[in-house]
Design goal:
With about 190 residues, the protein is of the alpha+beta class. The chain is about 50% helix and about 25% strand.
Length: about 190
């Protein structure tokens, strides 16, 4: 997927506005294990994942809680850094060698003040991230571990081949032992 296609998938932009975004973009190839954002730093960039896989998680005293996984075509952003210019509460780590486009966050904010189409693109971007977070929250509150795992199998079965089971368990809000039981039960 090309950068213009990914950007248009978020919100269709007229050519002049798209050109402004493309002028900011810098392609970077980063290795597996790279943290794009950390929960103790101020995010400086928004990333667009051209290929690869990323995990969004928060660290707690004795564990990591995975919020979601992002694949090619995803826009990776620290919402707190993006909306409040504050230190991130999440970490975004690459689970595979990845190709990304990097957009400076301050330059994006400047464009939002001068281009209504880009301001709308930014608004829709945040709405999508909030919707994803809400869906994950609701799933954890109202669905059983078996239902959450079945949903993962139905919508993203390939993640089981690409993501460590510990990260899958964390995403589902269960331990690895419980994940093993759920997998055995659903076979």
């Amino acid at each position: 997927m090309s950068l213009p296609e990914i950007l248009h998938a978020t919100y269709p932009l007229p050519p002049a506005s798209l050109d402004k975004l493309l002028a900011l973009a810098e392609y970077v190839a980063l290795p597996k294990g790279t943290c794009l954002f950390r929960d103790d730093t101020l995010a400086q960039f928004v990333y667009v994942l051209q290929h690869g896989l990323a995990r969004v998680y928060a660290r707690r005293a004795d564990r990591e809680v995975t919020f979601w996984f992002s694949e090619a075509g995803a826009v990776l952003v620290s919402i707190r850094g993006y909306t409040e210019q504050a230190v991130s509460y999440e970490t975004i780590e690459l689970l595979e060698d990845s190709g990304l486009f990097r957009l400076p966050m301050q330059a994006l904010q400047d464009l939002y003040r001068t281009d209504l189409h880009l301001a709308n693109w930014g608004r829709v971007l945040v709405e999508r991230v909030w919707r994803q977070a809400e869906q994950q929250f609701i799933a954890r509150q109202f669905r059983t571990a078996e239902e959450r795992y079945a949903d993962l199998l139905a919508h993203s079965p390939h993640l089981l081949q690409r993501v460590a089971l510990g990260h899958i368990a964390s995403y589902l809000g269960i331990t690895q032992v419980t994940l093993s039981r759920v997998r055995a039960k659903l076979k």
